[in-house]
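the four lines:
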Amino acid sequence: MPTPERTSTEQIIGAAVRLLEDGGPAAVTMQAVANAVGVKAPSLYKRVRDRDALLRLVGEQAADDLTRRLEAASGRLDDALLAFRRFGRERPEAFRLLFTSLVDADRLAATSAPVLRVTEAVVGPAHALDAARLLTAWATGFVTMELAGAFRLGGDLDEAYRYGITHLVGSLRTAQEPERPAHGS
Amino acid sequence: MPTPERTSTEQIIGAAVRLLEDGGPAAVTMQAVANAVGVKAPSLYKRVRDRDALLRLVGEQAADDLTRRLEAASGRLDDALLAFRRFGRERPEAFRLLFTSLVDADRLAATSAPVLRVTEAVVGPAHALDAARLLTAWATGFVTMELAGAFRLGGDLDEAYRYGITHLVGSLRTAQEPERPAHGS
DNA sequence: ACCTGAACACCGTTCAAGT
DNA sequence: ACCTGAACACCGTTCAAGT
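prediction for all of em together
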């Protein structure tokens, strides 16, 4: 005899997201999640394979969210990079989760697509991939180090990030097409 | 009545390092560590406060190891950056652990000191900090993304890393001293 | 068809008792 | 002074039994 569903996968993911951001990965307990959605822990296994699968879902939702933000800001390269850091600062635990190898690598890589498109407009197709990797790697590392508290030598981090953007985007503009040495067209 | 010590903090850290690299953080169980050093789990608490403290010790040893490698390669900026990536590929779990907020931030920051010194020689003292942050952030992000499998669009990663080094170091060289506009000396 | 109580294996941690 | 067995709280997960 059917029983009405008392929760949903979306609700479960939502609860996990909140617990994660509030208390880190250790706080994402099957029990805590179940409690948050008004159900007992064993019931969660009807919707998610296990805890790792739930964390993967959380990570993939975060990746998709980040991708959406980057797309929305993809008109200007610096806006996209600022949006990237903003995401990391708003959702530090989700950001860290992205690079945990729990999250599907393709879903994570999709994050770079919007950046790749804007980059192409700046440096041309030949070096778009290298340039996009340079930018995404830098931004990823900056936010990772910032969240880890690795920047200890003072200075305004907002300014440091802007310095990086200006420097990198500027250098990409001048360093285009290194293999068409001098003979015109 | 004294009892001979059957293990040591160093041995315990060593076992934890091995377990970490072989099976990730989840494999670093107090039981597994105790077993590896020939003791029962409760005995570990004579030497380390708890599991988190043990992981912190592992992370700090990794940070010191990385710092030593960077110092050894600090003659040339590109050597230092190559050594940084080599460390990440040799000890991916330790590398990830570095940015876990478990590790003391000062100890992590100390890692950047050798890079800062070399950078200073390239761009001068005024922008050494900005430049060092640019480089360490990029390298950190590159290795983080590489380990997470985030580079999915093909291409040789060794080459991509070299591209980054060449581009970044080159751009730093030409972008020096932006605030001494034109009036000599 | 979903939900739950009971149970199991495993983990971190404490502590009294051994030597 | 270090080590251990026993115990406790907590966690992930399974499954038979409920509705």
